[in-house]
Amino acid sequence: MAQPDIAFQPERWGADPKLVALLGQQGAAQFRALFDGFPEAVGVLWAIRDAGGRIVDFSFGYGNPSILRAFRLPAATRDRYTLLEALPRMRGSRAFDAYVRVCETGEPWVHEVTYDTPFGDGYMLGTFVHRSAKLGDGLINFLTDVTDERRMEAELRSYAHVVAHDLSEPIAGISMLVRMLERRPEQPPPSDVLRQLRTGTERARDLIDGVLVYARAGELSMERVALGQLAAQVAEDLRPSLERAGATLDTRELPEVEGDPRQLRRVLQNLVGNAVKFRGETPPRVELSALRDSREWVVTVRDNGVGVDPEQATRIFEMFARAGKETDGAGIGLPVCRRIVEAHGGRIWVEPADGGGSAFRFTLPR
């Protein structure tokens, strides 16, 4: 399931006048009592019509605590936005047309959709099976979170690909070299053959180790953690590569959080290590900082490197994804970071940094 911000406790929306008009005071109260404790996200939208009676937008009616928490929706959302104001990308979309069709015909609509977008003052993130049904002059939406299932399916496909291609390639190379050596048992193996054998075995071992690290990334042992101390340990761990690259690591004041120190150290090490690895022509500058808002800490690892193509900004957090074919590595570091951060109740993303490079950000509950 897409990890909600466990520190965000929504304020329940007040009475919905249109729901009361449709069902009466008692019926509306029973409706809310039924869905307030419902584990899945439930929301009601009311049609907004123009002078000709055509549906041009929807207003927000009722939202149960599950949807408010999942999308981080404050109580002011209903008064501040219409649907298209909160989610402009929906204007002219198939989904909006389907909403209109549900209202006009009463025919239910079922669709699977993946969100990664601001939603008013909240944020929609994850993959949901979306079921809509007519309710008065509006509709009721049920959203079933299938993020984990779809991610697991994608990762199983990635595992199969690794076994079929990435892992089988070094194994096939090792097998060929062994057969070559077997044909000349009386001769010492040439140094280039030994080098190829070593490279192949290291590649296979890296892939296997990476899968094991990813599998264990969600296992947490929580305690009070000083991120500043972790950053100092990471700087010491990476000192040889930082010195070789002529890199500077500027660590600002960092908070104490509840977390797994071993796993959070791995996140910082991966992000700082990537900042050095994907450097530009100038010596790398990496800045590690944190800001606090009302609900969470936002930790940022900013660099002046080559940056991330916006079209790859989501894909690079998928298992075995790499920025390009020429990129070394198994493509496991960032997915491990994502898995660790989400296990802590946060989320992770990347955006362009001012002046060039990238800013990798992740949240931790406060």
Would you kindly provide a written description of the structure presented here, covering whatever features stand out?
By secondary structure, this protein is α+β, with helices and mostly antiparallel strands. It has three domains: 17-145, 2-Layer Sandwich (Beta-Lactamase); 150-216; 223-365, Heat Shock Protein 90 (2-Layer Sandwich). It is built from twelve helices and twelve strands. It has helices at 17-36, 65-70, 77-80, 83-86, 94-105, 147-166, 168-183, 191-216, 227-237, 239-245, 261-277, 333-343, and strands at residues 41-49, 55-63, 109-119, 122-134, 138-145, 223-226, 248-251, 256-259, 285-292, 296-303, 348-352, 358-365. The strands form three sheets. It has a five-stranded antiparallel sheet with strand order 2-1-5-4-3. A five-stranded mixed sheet has the order 7-9-10-12-11. A hairpin with a 3-residue loop joins β4 and β5. α9 (227-237) crosses α11. The longest helix is centred in the middle third of the chain and has 26 residues, at 191-216. The chain starts with 16 loop residues before the first helix and ends with a strand. 32% of the residues are buried.
